[in-house]
Amino acid sequence: MDHGSFKTRSTYCTLVNRSDTCKYICYFHTKAGMFYIGLTNASEVWRTDFTEEALTEHVKKFALKSTEDYISNIRSSCGNGSTSVFVQEDGAVLQLGMVSITLPRLGEPEGRAELRDLLFKMADSLTQQDTTGGPSSFSPGKSQFRRNTGFEPRTQQNGPTVTVKKRLPGDSLINPGSRKKRPATGVAFDDNDEV
């Protein structure tokens, strides 16, 4: 398996646990020749590390061709709701159909540092996508061509401003200053009703 082709950028997905509907962030990244799979509920962090050899064995065990296929399968399982998380005292088990991944719990200082790094990696990823105009994986409903102009100065109009008066109900379209003439209505008297 060729790990040199594996992109070093981090990948994220969210999942909702089938058993208790708790939300988690599942993340993958490489650093110094190691591949990390992590899981967090924003207060606790579970992570496992793979060397290239261990990752090759792990991916072959599930009859996949590459690390990208492995990540893609995990992300699709997380997205379709077929994922379960079993939190234990010393770790968590991520159950993805027939695949289960055991993730040891990180201690207090290491877990806090991991959460901080994860937060900044996600923010950097979003900033880079906004700068390059790439599609955002976190908000698929938004158009990639729409720019957020909330922090940009507003432009001034240089021409004369024309105010358009709102047409009230009953006003004439042809002569806007006058009201439509309606036929007079009166009271209909029937002689038959009198006795």
From TrEMBL:
It comes from the Eukaryota. Residues 128-195 are annotated as: Disordered. Residues 128-142 have a biased composition (Polar residues). Signal peptide: none annotated. It holds the Pfam family PAXX. One of its GO terms (molecular function) is molecular adaptor activity. This is Protein PAXX.
